[in-house]
Amino acid sequence: MNTFLTRVQTFYIPASSSVDSPQYRPSAEYTVHLSSADFSSLVALKLALQEKTKAGYIQSQFFQVAFKNEFQGVHGYQGAFLTTSEELRLSFQSQPSVIELVVVKYTKAQAKLLHQLVSKEELPGLVGYLQSVRKNAPDREESEEEAVGFAERYKDVYPEKMLQRIGNGLPAGWPVVDLQEEFEGFTGVQVPLGIYRECLKFAAKLNSE
After folding, report:
1. Between vectors from CA 171 to CA 107 and to CA 13, what angle results, nearest 5°?
2. How far, in Å, CA of 199 to CA of 203, rounded?
């Protein structure tokens, strides 16, 4: 069976935006191999992405998928989500040898607002997801994806052991140096370069002990 190198980029919608007028934020990227059978239906594709990426938020939250070349720029998405299996199969035929996918995930609170925005084929999956979520379970907000994106972005800035200890649970108010874009729940700070370097040396020493 033929397999296709597939690059998957995940996005989330921050609390400052909305599902009907979203501003997507990039999170993490994955490279996987998918088969032609994985593109036979929307359900098959979503199951394959859950299995191959092994990303917790893809496995546990409702998400939509699109071919990247059918989406607009990151800050101007209007949404070209794949809404039917037939559309998926037709679009798949015209994709390049290396396939690029966009995955947009939603928190439970956001998913509750999608009933009028998803296709009839997507609706059963949305309803099933909402029914499966425990009634009193707290909403999983953007913190997990932000943490993944943060760790990847700052892997050359903060010591590796520090990022490993933080994992997917960055504390609120965590200082981010030279923050170029808004991260919900994080505090951007700027410090003199010399002080910053000394702080990193001290942090690296602590993490090596």
Report:
1. 25
2. 6
